[in-house]
Each structure stands twice: as C-alpha cells, then as structure tokens.
Amino acid sequence: MITFISYIVVFGIIVFFHELGHFALAKLHKIRVFEFALGFGPKLFSKKIGETDYGIRAFPLGGFVKMDEDTVSEDPRSFLNAPAWKRLTVLFAGPIMNFVLAILVFTIVMWGIGFPVNAVGELIPDMPAAQSGELMPGDNILEINGVPTPTWNDVTAQIAPNPQLEMKIERDGEILYVQLEAARDPEDTRYVVGIRPLTRSNASGAFVMAVQQTWMMSREVVSFLAALPAGGQEGVEIVGPVGMAGMVGEAARGGIYNLLALTGLFSINLGIFNLLPLPALDGGRIFFILVELILRKKIDKEKEGMVHLAGFALLMALMLFVLYKDILRLFQ
C-alpha cells in the first residue's frame, strides 16, 4: 500500500507542477484555457471560474491543461493564434517547472539532513590523513594540486585520480600547505586519504547545493539520452511504470528525504524528456514553432496535428514496450 500511495503522490506532484507551468503562462498571456484538471478520468468535482473549468478527476496521476493546441480556431485568444514567442514560453514553462520542483525538493532534503562542504569533518583512523597528522577537523580545503575546491564534490574529484596531493587549507584564519600521499581504495581504482566532510545545514547553502545537484543530474540524464542511439550506457536500463513504482516504494520505506530526492530525479527526467523534439511532446511543438519562425510562415495546423497524433500513438507503443520489459524483469 505504501508503494501505491507514494507512487500516486510523487507522480501526481510532478505532473501537476508541469501542467501548472503551462497553465500559468497561458493565463499570463491571456490565452484561452478551457480546463485545468487534477488527475485523469471521470470528473469527481468541477467548478467554472470565468472561462476555465477547474476540476478533480478520478485518477490522481498528475493533471492536464486543455487548450486548442491542435485545432484551427477563429478565436483571437486561442493558443494557435497567439504570437510565436508566447506559444514558446507556454510550452517551455512546463519543463521549467519540473526543474523548479527538483530544486525545491533538493533544497528541502539538503536543509533537512545537511550538506557536505569543503572542510574536514572527521579523520578516519589508520588512513593517510590521520597517519600524517597534517590535517585537522575543521580545516577548510581551498585547493588541491593548484585546483580550487569550493565544494566537497571538487575535493573528492581532485583526490580520486592523484596519488600525490598538495592541499592549500585554511585553519583558524591562517593559510597552510600540506603534503599527503593518498592510498588506493581497495574497492575500486580511486585514491583516498580518509577524510569525511563537515556538514552544514542552512537554507541559502542548501539552495545553492540543490541548484548544483539539479544541474549535475540534468547533465547525466542528457548524457544517457544521447547514448541511446548507440545502445545506451553500460549497466543502465530504461525502466517503465513497474520499475519506477518499485523505486518509489523502496525510497518511501527509506524515509521522506529519500522519497523527496527521488521525486527530484524523476522531475528532472520528465522535464528533459518533454523537451525532446518528438511529436506530441512539448519539444516537438517547440520544434514546429521554431520552423515557423525560420520559414516566416505558418505551418498547416491540421497536418501538424496529425503528426502529433501519430507521435502520441508511437509514444504509447513505446510505453507499452517498456512496460512489457518491466514485467519480464520481474520474472527474471
């Protein structure tokens, strides 16, 4: 039950934020919005305010914004009759809200559990740093081998490939240089010195770390998608609804912070996936608008609508295939 409820909540929030972006920009540009709904399926509740019907549907898996994106209309306030720049901002707003959600949940996580900074928190016994006596808890690591290390990720990135290290540190306001010889990690090929980071917890620092985390994860998702035509990345598989439900359930059992972190990751994935220039996705619609701007003439909307319809059918077929692979993995 916890898996089911968590799955509904996580993807409900992710899709809701996405659609809220489209809705807010459409309203800002005075584009006509017929309906803004939470969930899908039969209506449980609806109330018309102005020209927009606000409703709650039976299946709480996200939501949708109903505009006339694919039908030709004489209405000057229809989506298709809006200037290209307004349509672009409406389409971009959905994925952007997915990144906003990711930053928000990562900020909550890092503010709640703390985040590592570029300072020594603990020396591990019988490891190079402790044996040398050169480092002390509280030392700020400013540079390693001449490379600035403003974050803990930078510290570990500089230690990992280098057996010989010169660290520029700050201790009680004094700048010092220490020499360390790293040891090879027995579990892989990285070098380590045996230090754990100092952790801090404040809103501003958590926000900065959340932005960095969102950027780093976005790059990893883009790299994964870019590798798909060549067969994908080794050891990384695409998971469908069943696989994602399992991940959500496992995260939920690990605590609220684990679930929030996974929500951020899934939100980033949805945002980037929707920006792909494929029919029926936001990226596909953006592509057609950019072609309009380049050619300086309107594309036949009925033909474009047929392309998006065909693209939607292909996406559904792909989802069914991924679901099939998900189910096969359950029995392996």
How would you sum up this structure, described in words?
The protein has helices at residues 2-28, 84-113, 128-132, 152-159, 203-227, 241-253, 256-274, 282-295, 301-330; strands spanning 35-49, 52-66, 115-123, 140-144, 147-148, 164-171, 174-181, 183-184, 191-192, 195-200. By secondary structure, the protein is an alpha+beta fold. It folds into two domains: 2-32 and 67-113 and 211-330, no CATH class; 116-200, PDZ domain (Pdz3 Domain, Roll). The chain has a four-stranded antiparallel β-sheet. A two-stranded antiparallel ribbon has the order 1-2. It has a two-stranded antiparallel ribbon with strand order 3-10. Strand 8 (183-184) and strand 9 (191-192) form a beta hairpin. The longest helix is centred in the N-terminal third of the chain and has 30 residues, at 84-113. It is elongated and about 75 Å long. The chain starts with a helix and ends with a helix. The mean pLDDT is 87. The chain crosses the membrane at residues 6-25, 88-113, 256-276, 306-324.
List the topology elements.
Layout: H1 2-28, E1 35-49, E2 52-66, H2 84-113, E3 115-123, H3 128-132, E4 140-144, E5 147-148, H4 152-159, E6 164-171, E7 174-181, E8 183-184, E9 191-192, E10 195-200, H5 203-227, H6 241-253, H7 256-274, H8 282-295, H9 301-330
Antiparallel strand pairs: 1-2, 3-10, 4-5, 4-6, 6-7, 8-9
Helix pairs in contact: 1-2, 1-6, 1-7, 2-5, 2-7, 2-8, 5-7, 6-7
